[in-house]
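Handout, section B. The chain below has 415 residues.
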Amino acid sequence: MSMRSQRFALPMREAILEAGKGRFDTYPNPSVGAVLMHDGVIVARGHHDHAGGPHAEIACLQDAERKCISPRGATMVVTLEPCNHQGKTGPCSEALIRAGVSRVVIGASDPNPKAAGGAERLREAGVDVIEGVLEPECRLLVADYLTWLEKKRAFGMLKLASTLDGRIATRTGKSRWITGEAARSDVHRLRAGIGRAHGAILIGGSTFRNDNPQLTARGEHAGGPQPKAIVFTTTLPDAGQDYHLLRERAHDAIFFVNCEEAVSDRAKALRDLGVTVLASPAGPDAPVQDHLHFLAEELFRQGMPYLLCEGGGRLGMRLMEAGLVDLFFLHMANTIIGDKEARPLFDGRTPDSLDEVLKLRNVGTRLVGQDLAMACLPANSWLAPSVGELTALHGESTLWLCDTNFPPIPGQRQD
């Protein structure tokens, strides 16, 4: 990043945090944030709040208008290239030109060919345009959007909680609670967001039978739409069994099974309850990865843009090996079980050398209560080369779920 671009890194970080406020509410659009500056001072800000609503640049201009601040001669810093097409809203490039903004600082180019071209249009109109400021961070910000565009599948996330020695439960399966109340609230916030976006949570058959989970957003994050609950299993439960997903959430439950199990008497009884039984077209001898790829693509076709796996280390490992974990969230408690028979964070691989290990890149770390929360980008994810090398700014600008976690940067002049 050039020295000219470097001086806009801190306001771009503010725009990134602003963008996070729209996370999970903008599908099928990306999360975008913007700030307006006069003489180095942030005087207005805005973000894309929901699909069909004002884009971030327009929201920022509206914020300036409410404050009786003229954008003429100002600098707008925006995480994604202003759109240059007529969709549900007009071209943001034209709105900025009409507003008299003299400089536009862009984080990442718009990957959608229908919307791209904003930077070029601004230059044609005499606006000074600076591109590529914190570009890796801004591309990570729209990792979900990139996946929808490029892969046509649900954006895959894996969430796990462990002790310092990498255990997710005791040898008897006791895991309540590994992490503290603040970390658990963080997870419910994530679930609530996925519910608002009409996404889904994935678990395996063992987690379904042993833990009898609800897979809902609860506590202060309850009250909105709940995520769909998907169980990937080889054997369907009996419809009369007392499971939360059958008794309380039948119409939100999806059981993902092979073709033979999907036409069984158990499948018919579950469908009579309102449960969805989804059959994988992959044969019974097909690799697990084939089934999982079909699931991620089928969910996206059905309008479910996010898939969060909470099914434990073995299923998480299969997803990661398949390249379907786009982001991995780990909450690590400051406790130690110290038992080699306790359930490990991951399981199911037998590498002979360290050259065969799965590698991840840390893209954000923070404290949640007394627990450490990490966001990681798997090296085998299709996103890894697309995102590029991140630039750490206090460690927080790289955290994907950062909408309410951090205050403005100390020392950065604010409105």
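Note. Residues 137 and 303 are 27 Å apart (CA to CA). Compare this with the example in section A.
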